Amino acid sequence: MAGQVRPITLVGTPVLHAPCRHVEDFDAALAELVDDMFASMYEADGVGLAANQISVDLRVFVFDCPDADGTRHRGAVVNPVLELPALEDRRLDDGDEGCLSVPGPHARLARPDHAAVQGFDVGGKPVRVEGTGLLARCLQHETDHLEGRLYIDRLSARARKKVLKEYEAARAEAEESLASGGQ
Ligand SMILES: [Zn+2]
């Protein structure tokens, strides 16, 4: 299962800002997509990746992410449905969040500290992934992606503007160093 690394789509690309389609066929093409998603996620040093982050508008995400106890969880979920604790049982974790599609900046974003996702594995078998800590954040972040939502869409207008400004500055710097033959 050596997937191919594909380029990561960046904020502003239409495929990132529209809901993805349900997966109907659990076929070889889907397995190949998941392999490519893992390869692309590891190449980018991410803990999760949604299909539309490599330009495919299907409801699939992959993850390789520690939970609050430091236990590593790895898998792929197709057609995921997010489950959050009832409002009265919800505790918020206001940790930092970032996104491979908005490379550079991070921002503090409060999210429930416990989340689960129901869906299917790459072979079509039902799966449920439950997580705390970073994994809970990751499950919410990735299901958001499949709805066409980025984490910056959940920030205040002011915080969002700050993140986008930092992102643009980091990009301009990268382009400048590329143009001058730097690394
Ligand atoms: Zn992301």
From TrEMBL:
Top-rank taxon, per record: Bacteria
Keyword set for this entry?
Hydrolase, Iron, Metal-binding, Protein biosynthesis
Which biological process, per GO, is one annotated for this protein? translation
Residues of the active site are E142
Documented EC number(s): 3.5.1.88
Top class in the EC scheme: hydrolase
Co-factor requirement: Fe(2+)
Q: How is the cofactor bound?
A: Binds 1 Fe(2+) ion.
Q: Where does Fe cation bind?
A: C99, H141, H145
Q: Which reaction does it catalyse?
A: N-terminal N-formyl-L-methionyl-[peptide] + H2O = N-terminal L-methionyl-[peptide] + formate
Q: Name one GO molecular function term.
A: peptide deformylase activity
Similarity comment: family membership: Belongs to the polypeptide deformylase family.
The record describes the protein's role as: Removes the formyl group from the N-terminal Met of newly synthesized proteins. Requires at least a dipeptide for an efficient rate of reaction. N-terminal L-methionine is a prerequisite for activity but the enzyme has broad specificity at other positions.
This protein's name: Peptide deformylase
